[in-house]
Protein 1
Amino acid sequence: MLILDGKAVAQKMKSIIAVRALEFAKQVGRKPGLGVIIVGEDPASHVYVKNKEMACQAVHFHSIRLQLPSSTTKEELLQAIQKMNQNELVDAFLVQMPLPPHLSSEIILDAIDPLKDADGLHPINMGYLWVNRQRVAPCTPWGVIKILDHYQIPIKGQSCVVVGRSQIVGRPMAHLLTMADGTVTLCHSRTPNLREKTRQADIIVVAAGQRHLLGSDDFKKGATIIDVGIHGSGQGKGVTGDVRFSELEGHVAAATPVPGGVGPMTIACLLENTLILAQHNKNIIIN
Ligand code: NAD
């Protein structure tokens, strides 16, 4: 079984981004900037934000963090978003999810300037994606496309199943696979006979958020398995996915591990989105 090493592919992407960031700095007079707004004290979110800041440092970006207490009101958060929208040093930013329950992620997402939307989740950017005029794509599904592309796993003409229909992973994933000429079935928690669907697929992307939901019996021999799920502390040790990885050897052709598969690709794509928007907003082209 070929292990699809997301860490290595992400590292390769980051090396290219780092070179481009230096060129950006030469032309603009400052580094590309990624902003993060974090509300509250969710420990996993703090780990994710720290990882993003470290990734920024490694590719010569600067990072700007706005830390707000969990008691932050909707108006205060909207003000913080406006600050980021107007900050000349911030080329793109994101609001770390999940938010405390009194804050609606939809209202927050709508307030982000679509030209500074690092996550690619603003409805305008989603709309562009849907009409096949991609500006920035949601990082996780775009990372999956990149990893398949890196390992030259064909999508064209293949039967693909996506498990999970969330706005950030499943639905854009199904769309991106469709645009890459795959024949896609999108499954979710109300899909009867899930195994019947996954067993006929060549490529299965699992993003159900259910630890160890699927194993070798759910896949046909020779399939490619992409496990998006993350369960655990987010710090590496004890982290597992939606797939029972240990069962796959000798049965499937290729699979992403957890950790070290889709996770690192998501961060690399976040950096790539930031650089795309930075170049677009400054009207410069770096090859
Ligand atoms: P979500 O909870 O928003 O959506 C889960 C989807 O899975 C839903 O559409 C639901 O219908 C479906 N589902 C749930 N149980 C199912 C079942 N038994 N059978 C079939 N479908 C089922 O989750 P999400 O935000 O899309 O995240 C999914 C997983 O991916 C989580 O573990 C999350 O932590 C992880 N994630 C990882 C990354 C990364 O960078 N690797 C990024 C985002 C999310």
Note: The chain has a mean pLDDT of 96.
Protein 2
Amino acid sequence: MRVLHPSGESGPLTMTRYVVLIGSPLKHSVSPYFQQAAFDYYRLDIRYETREVAEKDLKATVDDLRRPEMVGANVTIPYKERIVNLLDEVDGNAVLIGAVNTVVVRDGTLRGYNTDAIGFVRALRRGAGFDPSGKRAVILGAGGAARAVVFALLGEGINSVAVANRSEERAEELAAAARRVASRAEVMSLPWSSLSQDALFGCDLLVNCTSVGMKHTDLEGRSPLGAELIPPRALVCDLVYNPVETPLLEAARKTGAKTLEGLSMLVYQGAASFEMWTGKEAPLEVMFKGAAKALR
Ligand code: NAP
């Protein structure tokens, strides 16, 4: 049926709008479940759909976001870095991190943000009651997630950050970029081979930002650190969220360390994206339930 608008134009009075998840592969993605649950909670006529795209189709997929029914997008592996140059405007924090995971569409203009950093800080503060100010952190990994975590910690007044990565040059690259913006904090890189009790036991926060332990990959079932290296007095966070209890977190719990699951950051970063798209407060409980259900 064609509906006539009061203005005399024809067309539907309301239209279903869309947020899409751009990446590849997307088979195991959890975001569609908890984002749709949040849209449904507010009875918004918004569908969260996946767009599994090959690299050659990335530009066309991004341009497609300019259609009037598009609200925004999430961006995941492997396009978080490559999408930066395809957008009209990019938030300063996303430029610093070098990656965009959220696109907001306003009047056909594409604006890029990174909510991983906000999500990490909210998970730390609200999920674990941890205040990074004045603390010492060791970060395992130097990829996109590690960059978001390091810049987030600097923004929260961390006292020192040590970055250890399998490829040492990448760890030093991240540490050097962080030193350029760090006003007070000490930032260093550590060779992976020097990870020892001496290097680790003095830290207050240990964050695994590598993909080691991720389900459905050849790193499933593995921990980036031996149990003897886990600092028992630190908060141990794993960004890997599937499985919820990773081998690292299981070992940390056994040593008596406090732990924070990657699921918490996942939901908080998604909640920040939701608030940018809709202007509404994210229904956290609904989103946590949706994510946990998807992982089951
Ligand atoms: P990325 O850019 O591809 O970086 C992968 C990191 O893992 C690199 O530091 C890499 O080291 C390291 N790595 C890979 N295999 C390794 C191995 N066998 N031993 C030691 N280190 C290894 O990926 P990313 O975007 O940073 O994501 C990293 C992880 O965080 C993923 O599992 C992702 O799902 C998770 N994540 C979670 C959230 C959340 O909200 N919870 C958000 C973002 C990301 P090299 O540099 O040496 O290759």
Note: The pocket of NAP is lined by residues 77, 116, 119, 141-146, 165-167, 170, 209-212, 214, 219, 224, 239-241, 262, 265-266, 269 (CB under 6 Å).
Protein 3
Amino acid sequence: MISTDAAAVVDELRELFRSGVTKPVAWRRTQLTGLRTLLAEQEDVFLKALYADLRKNAVEAKRAEIALVRNEIDHTLENLDSWLTPESADIPRPLRPGDGRVVREPLGVALIIGPWNYPLQLVLAPLVGALAAGNCAVVKPSELSPNTSAAIAEHLPNYVEGVRVVEGAIPETTALLEQKFDTIFYTGNGTVGRIVMTAAAKHLTPVTLELGGKSPAIVEPGADLAVTAQRLAYGKFANAGQTCVAPDYVLAIGDTGPKLAEHLAETVGAMFGADPATSDSYGRIISTRHHDRLAALLDNGTAVVGGEADRDERYIAPTVLTGVSPDAPVMQDEIFGPILPIIEVSDLDAALAFVNERDKPLALYAFTESDETKRRIETETSSGGLVFGAAIIHLAAPDLPFGGVGESGMGRYHGRYSIDNFSHVKAVLDKPLA
Ligand code: NAD
């Protein structure tokens, strides 16, 4: 897309925004209802596209790409009036008489740039917030999931007003980023996150960066290792490990490592059968480049389960590695694939030190029965989110803010946090003249 086209798209939306049509709550509700209808009427189209892009099975796609967004819509429709009600604020005695209140006003035109791993959810969930807050939006789905991108471009504009879809790769995104937006919401990797933030700085545009990184899972003696293995395996092997909050690696305290590895091997068998390559419920890697990157990590430890790869199929088996060195390549960058290394550490202090010596993760998981351990992890580490006893499920709780910290991102969304993210929170002080 040449920049004049990008400029025309933004100009058109800005004009619509300035007309004031997006501000009434009724307009916002209509758009959210439109999104809900889109998901209902085009479900089959989206399921086919997600299968073509990622071999995402229908059950997983319905849960993670469709139901999750529908729940976000319903939760927002239910609470929108109360979230938008101005909050009254106390005025200090020397300034009285007068009334103070806090109002949330839409920012204007938002740019939403999506990734390929949950290519529908990660475009529509932010869009729910943008529209509910009364904005217009340009949506740029990932070119690496071309079928889902095309389905979004074809159908979304038929169900909502104030939204334009721009498909494309780096040239199209670059042209969009040259334009002045009122907020930019980017989901993807930190390298592109820096490009987005640099472009935004030219226009002083606020950004939300939903990034990734290595999210650790701490396992302590005393935790039920069979249940721990099931919950870790679900979080790790859904979408073939291509989930921003998938547990990246395990820090197994004391003697938990070998037993946990056995349980994980059993769980993988129960989830996908003896040969996951033939399972309908197991996905594929998005591209040959990512396949090759992951295949090169398979020998970074001893595979207690998995270890196989098939380049033609872009298949990487669900793999658990033991005997992994913290210096191994698999422990350097986010894995973003179905390989789970287990690192053995002596005690909780060593686990906390391991986490704190590295970038702040998007998610931190811990499996323990000890309240004292929970308290220490909560107060002595920093991460986008913290989950005890499970993995990845926190992103489905719309009253919990979802976002990163440090290298895992900035800003947060879901539920009322999306409204704040896509609004200006304005101070109003009203003092009588007499
Ligand atoms: P990606 O390659 O699809 O890129 C994301 C978007 O950036 C795409 O729309 C793409 O067109 C655009 N882009 C790519 N290069 C660009 C450039 N040079 N200039 C401008 N735009 C460009 O997705 P990805 O980055 O490979 O996604 C994987 C990463 O995203 C992982 O690190 C993962 O953890 C993270 N992620 C985070 C979340 C979250 O919610 N925090 C969710 C999903 C993925």
Note: The chain has a mean pLDDT of 97.
